[in-house]
Amino acid sequence: MPAQQKKLIFCAAGALSLACALGTAAAIGTQLWVRGTILCSTGALLVNASGPELHKFIGEIQYGLFSGQRVRQCGLGGRPFQFSFFPDLLRTIPASIHVSVILFCAALIVFALVGAGFFTFNAFGSPYETLHGPAGLYLWSSTCCSCGCLIMILFSSEVKIHHLSEKIANFKEGTFTFKTHSEQFANSFWTILVCSLVHFLNALLIRFAGFEFPFSKSKDSGTITGAVDLMY
């Protein structure tokens, strides 16, 4: 492939990595990771609510990695409540998983920025043979993609397996019991999925530029090169 086309491919990959870093940073600060509705089961059972009456006992909840808000309804109108994970919910939620999600988000931002810098360096400079060359670009892209996948797996397990929405809904509730009526992942969660796919695409762009995968190099080439060096 001509050098000019390789520069364009590397510039495009670097721009995508930079956009993913900025998108992840923006996603961390939002409350748009999970949206759902919560049912005040205690109130609904007391009045034996069903059909249209059940809507008077269904509130809303949305949260991110650091804070969120819920609107509880127990038949007397909505009552909003703001909360933060640190330090309010630290003893209620699976803290180790939640902190791991935040750390992997930070790692994703750092590695995406590093990858963007190395893509730019390979486009306008002379790439080295180690982490600055094609092997390094594969490394940064695969690391970012792995971080994105781990974020989605850990956060999904926290929400679905550990019932994070119910734990938040029942925080500081002594009389009423809330159950998750519906929940779905929101925009910030899908931003991480898009970023993971973009970094996978970057690895394909490197291959499209004409560079072999690091693990596809044959062992014979090193042996032949060593023999030639001995001749001289």
Structural overview:
The chain is of the alpha+beta class. The protein has a single domain (3-209), classed as Butyryl-CoA Dehydrogenase, subunit A, domain 3 (Up-down Bundle), CATH 1.20.140. The protein has helices at residues 3-28, 41-47, 95-124, 134-161, 164-169, 187-208, 219-231; strands at residues 34-40, 58-63, 67-73, 78-84, 178-185. A five-stranded antiparallel β-sheet has the order 4-3-2-1-5. It is elongated and about 75 Å long.
Summarize the SSE layout with pairings.
Elements: H1 3-28, E1 34-40, H2 41-47, E2 58-63, E3 67-73, E4 78-84, H3 95-124, H4 134-161, H5 164-169, E5 178-185, H6 187-208, H7 219-231
Antiparallel strand pairs: 1-2, 1-5, 2-3, 3-4
Any idea what the shape is?
elongated
Mean pLDDT, to the nearest integer, reads 83
Task: Evaluate the radius of gyration.
Answer: 25 Å
Separation, N- and C-terminal Cα atoms: 32 Å
- Please tell me the total number of domains: 1
Number of helices: 7
Low-confidence stretches: 218-232
Instruction: Give the CATH topology.
Output: Butyryl-CoA Dehydrogenase, subunit A, domain 3
- Quickly name the level 1 CATH class: Mainly Alpha
Biggest sheet details: 5 strands, antiparallel
Please state how the strands of the largest beta sheet are arranged side by side: 4-3-2-1-5
Roughly what fraction of the amino acids lie in strands? 15-25%
Q: What sequence of helices (H) and strands (E) makes up the elements?
A: HEHEEEHHHEHH
Q: Helical residue percent? A: 55-70%
- Supply the helix-strand structural class: alpha+beta
User: What is the strand tally?
Assistant: 5
Any idea what the CATH architecture is?
Up-down Bundle
